[in-house]
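Input chain follows. Return structure tokens only.
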Amino acid sequence: MAAVKMITIDLDGTLLRSDGTVSDHTVAVLQQARKKGVVTAIATGRMYQTARPYGERLQLGDSPLLLFSGGLIETLESKKVLYQKGIPEEDSRPLLALAKEKGWQMQTYIDDVLRVAEDGPWIKDYQRITRCAYDVCGDAFYTPQGACNKILSRGEHDELEKRRDLIEERFPGRFNILFSAPTFLEIMPPGIDKGQGIRRLGELYGIGTESIMALGDSQNDLDMLKAAGLPVAMANASDEVKAAAAYVTASNDDDGVAAAVEKFVL
């Protein structure tokens, strides 16, 4: 196994405990890894606004953040954009028109601003989880100004599966659609996933994927785990995610990230 030169860490269900916090022990272990010269990067479906506090909590300095599942790579402190690919308006507008017709909850991310058509329980729940501010735009929501980094739909899992199937039927090949949690349907540009994201991140830092340790727990982490030289799943991950890992660490509530870094890096 190649020496680990980069660690990429998912947030929800991986780095973050169930209460949304990160332990002092995990912070200390990741700081030890950084002192050894190991690049440490958050790899998340979240936007900069809601990922930044955790980068600061980990004291990552100007380390890269892999945001929107790889659609944006941006440095933590200087906010330098190293890579970006969004959903163009000619693709997002017909999708949002379909959402309006069907009455689907949707939210867009453009220039680090989260927008919705109307307030409601799903966006309030999202705000509770992520502590993210959002703009209620009314009908203007359905005419996005600029490329969307991501479009997210919230709902019960069975309903979201039907939405996914209809979107793929109506717009074949125009989006990459994955679940990041049972009630989170992530809609991204084609070719964007965390696996491609860590490959690009490795290229930017001159590090091959064989030297990347990736940690995750959900379906949108699968591509990242498959691309990494050392894929690590959390004990709380699904069986599908565990099957893609070379090692299963402790759960997110039991400092599983720290345990894996201590075992393979320190």
